[in-house]
Amino acid sequence: xxxxxKKLNAIKETQKHENDTxxxxxQVSILSRRIDELTKHLKDNAxxxxxxxxxxxxxxxxxxxxxxxxxxxxKSYNSVVKKLGLKK
Length: 88
Description:
Number of domains: 1
Structural class: mainly alpha
Order of helices and strands: HHHH
Largest sheet: none
CATH architecture: Orthogonal Bundle
Distance between the termini: 27 Å
Strand content: under 5%
């Protein structure tokens, strides 16, 4: 589970301004942290198919947000991908 502190740190990495919590960049950052946590869980609990389905939904949502960023703001897309270590 993503704690409040981890979530705030994820937002701080990519936020546009001080009060930014809902931009596409911040959402991608939060989703990436949640995906990492759930991936660790699934390594220990391989038969947890409900969590696996949730993971696939999160990956899909992150992909859609990244596609949105790449179409509308190439500069921020590149910075988010670089900061989070995601592949292009």
